[in-house]
Amino acid sequence: MEEQMARRLVAAEGKKLQQAGLVARTWGNISCRIDENHFVITPSGLDYETMTARDLVLMDIRNGVCCGAHKPSSEKGVHLAAYQIFPEVGYVIHTHQTYATAIGLCGFEQLAMVGVIAFSLATLFQLVTLPVEFNASARAVRSLENSGRMDEAQIRGTKRVLTAAALTYVAALALSLANLLRLFLLVGGRNRRR
């Protein structure tokens, strides 16, 4: 992409993001790849409403050297890494939406614990309902046996299918328990490192 076109595109998109309420004041940043070696990025601390294409900062993908009248966004390293690691990436938008920022400010530990509690409740529900699933399969087999509509071979096949169906609930519970353990280890490990 031609540099001036990239500059105009980023400046225009910054205004659109602000008008849509996806960024507030100078939060967030945008960049656009020009070629395999360069990209332009929004400057640090400049409001999108007043920012022009000339205000953008030119950066070298190979070494991170920047050129422009302003400092590049403080998130320039994230953009640089995206362009270096993924050559197919042509555009990066990093926003700080109001609600996402509010959730982030409440802290990882509190948010993580809400997730662990919710997942624990879902796993407990699976555990409590597991006998119900096995009972339902057994009742279905008894009902089919008593109906007289199936011969012995069909009944045996039906039992195998319904047992396998009930065992899927066991597998799901085992997977949930493993994921719950993983969550406990992740959250607990993060808290111990602090």
Kindly describe this structure:
There is one protein chain. By secondary structure, this protein is an alpha+beta fold. The radius of gyration is 28 Å and the shape is elongated. It has five helices and five strands, in the order H-E-E-E-E-H-E-H-H-H. The model has no long low-confidence stretch (mean pLDDT 85). The two termini are 45 Å apart. Helix 4 runs antiparallel to helix 5 (152-193). It has a five-stranded antiparallel beta sheet with strand order 4-3-2-1-5, sandwiched between helices.
Q: How much strand?
A: 5-15%
| Quantity of strands, as a count | 5
Q: Whole-number average pLDDT?
A: 85
Order of helices and strands: HEEEEHEHHH
Share of helical residues = 55-70%
Structural class: alpha+beta
> What is the overall number of helices?
5
Q: Give me the Rg, rounded.
A: 28 Å
Which stretches are low in confidence, meaning pLDDT under 50 for 5 or more residues running? none
Could you say which overall geometry the principal axes of the C-alpha atoms support? elongated
For the largest beta sheet, what order do the strands appear in spatially? Answer: 4-3-2-1-5
Report, as a whole number of angstroms, the end-to-end distance: 45 Å
Give short descriptive properties of this protein.
single chain; 194 residues; alpha+beta; 5-stranded antiparallel sheet; 5 helices; elongated
